[in-house]
Design goal:
single chain, about 325 residues, alpha/beta, Rossmann fold, 5-stranded parallel β-sheet, about 45% helix, binds phosphoric acid mono(formamide)ester, binds norvaline
């Protein structure tokens, strides 16, 4: 199956264009089968996923756990601090021990380097459940959602308005570049995406003909957009920078005045949790154009595809 079996997923950059498309088509099939009444599709019968969370999570944790159950497997929810990791046991020792018990690890960490270390020493696939650098599971679910709503991906215009250094945006950037979505990022100076992510995205964009641009004017990004996306201004772990971030990002709020520049049938997306009154107004997130609940639902189906393809022997 495209050689995904046994692989890690730390970044969207770990996937080729074909592999990413294959995950999306598998996710669509699994969702259709679920809606047709197949609640359990035992592709991972008896397999166990260890979930290590260093930060809070609602969507990722619950959807991973439900996904394992619906694939005939089981998920162990382990908080970082309840493991000996919290008392200083090295990541490399934890990785080698867990690998003897379980079939895969999903981890949400502060530092992306910790995931790289975990993956280096784990014999079993390690999946990024969000780090300071990326959120690949979110981007895969989001691509599935855009495809479902718009019928195609290549050639669409997506505007991301807000924090250009955001982990979710980094994964969206890489996925958009692979799939041919034209992504306009409206962010202030000092908040640009990480150069190494931009470099990788530009390489893929050359192949897919995607336009990837950083602009300072939110109206320029949103003009005639098919998709308007935002995320929080203060991500987990950035709480000490709250005051400065809220001040700097205030002109980048997604509100009714801004979205009137988008196409009439634009969709509003947000990975959630949202901070109403900061990056988005109540009016926009609750509007008929907002598809955030369908987007959240698709995390489940997209993750079932990722788990089934990576953990299957
Ligand atoms: N979008 C997302 O990953 O949400 P959680 O933090 O609730 O998992
Ligand atoms: N950028 C946010 C995403 C939460 C799913 C954070 O890291 O807190």
């Amino acid at each position: 199956m495209y050689g995904l079996c046994g692989r890690d997923l730390l970044s969207i950059a770990d996937l080729s264009i074909e592999e990413l498309k294959f995950i999306l088509s598998t996710a669509k099939q699994l969702k259709q089968r679920f809606y047709a009444g197949e609640r359990v599709i035992p592709l991972l019968n008896g397999k166990v996923l260890a979930m290590i969370f260093q930060k809070p999570s609602t969507r990722t944790r619950v959807s991973l756990e439900v996904a394992m159950l619906q694939l005939g497997g089981y998920a162990l929810n382990l908080s970082w601090n309840e493991l000996q990791l919290g008392r200083g046991e090295p990541i490399k020792d934890t990785a080698r021990v867990l690998s003897r018990y379980i079939d895969g690890i999903a981890a949400r960490v502060y530092s992306h380097g910790d995931l790289v270390e975990l993956a280096k020493y784990s014999d079993k696939p390690v999946i990024n459940a969000l780090s300071d650098l990326e959120h690949p599971l979110q981007a895969i679910g989001d691509m599935m959602t855009i495809l479902e709503k718009k019928g195609h991906l290549s050639g669409l215009k997506m505007a991301f308005v807000g924090d250009g250094g955001d982990n979710v945006l980094h994964s969206l950037l890489l996925a958009s570049a692979k799939l041919g979505i034209n992504l306009y990022i409206a962010t202030p100076k000092g908040y640009d995406p990480k150069p190494e992510i931009m470099k990788l995205a530009m390489e893929d964009a050359r192949l897919s003909d995607a336009v990837i641009e950083i602009v300072r004017d939110p109206i320029e990004a949103v003009k005639e957009a098919d998709v308007v996306y935002t995320d929080v201004w203060v991500s987990m772990g950035q709480e000490s920078e709250r005051e400065k971030r809220v001040r700097d990002l205030a002109p980048y709020q997604v509100n009714s005045d801004l979205v009137k520049y988008a196409k009439k049938d634009y969709i509003f997306m947000h990975c959630l949790p949202a901070k109403r009154g900061e990056e988005v107004t109540e009016e926009v997130i609750e509007s008929p154009n907002s598809i955030v609940w369908d987007q959240a639902e698709n995390r489940l189906h997209a993750q079932k595809a990722v788990l089934a393809l990576l953990l299957r022997s």
